[in-house]
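Changelog excerpt

This revision adds worked examples to the README so contributors can see how folded entries look when concatenated. The first example is reproduced verbatim below.
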Amino acid sequence: VRLVESGGGSVEPGGSLRLSCAASGYSVSSYCMGWFRQAPGKAREGVAYFEKDGAIWYAESAKGRFAISQDATRNTVNLQMNNLRPEDTARYFCAADTRSCFHSGDYYVNYWGKGTQVTVSS
């Protein structure tokens, strides 16, 4: 199983980015997948992920601005991020949880990508 993120970059506040996570070795529709982020000096936190039965969880800070989606034909999981804020600056990681479907956040995540950097500044 391999997860490779792309789409990060530097944008001004209010801008948008679309992150993509390409999976290999399995189908993204087979496991619960999601996005986490970690800012310098801070703990990793969940951003958005698919739960059991296709339900979607969003962090409060992401609600109304971010949207997670899945593309079975490309075998990717995407994160559309709009109205970005400086506090969204972090390294964003794609994750797959084959054991608990993020029931305990990232505790049981067993596959991680290397991440993609998002920087929001003027």
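The second example, added in the same revision:
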Amino acid sequence: QVQLVESGGGLVQPGGSLRLSCEASGSITGTLAMGWYRQVPGKEREKVAAISRHGNLYYADFAKGRFTISRDNVKRTLYLQMDRLDAEDTAMYYCASLDGAGYYSDPKYWGQGTQVTVSS
């Protein structure tokens, strides 16, 4: 079993930045891919970014150039640096441990989510 706990969400003004963190515990190793997803009410959860076992990166088109995913395997922590945020980035953000080494793998375990609200 894997436990994932996100933090770092909050209220930010348009153009601002936030850094999300996801601490992993339990039966997890640094050999699996991990990712960030987001969801707004009434819409499907969408993939934001992912990082493979070997550090290969995936970004959704809306995240390219603004968001940066990274991981610290020693700390068992996944990060998402989000810059130049706008109102459309408002969502619940979820961390996921993927079911494989590649960033294309399906999510297997989820965190509880952290809310990001972009508003003036």
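Reviewer comment on example two: The two ends are 40 Å apart (CA to CA). The chain has no helices and eleven strands.
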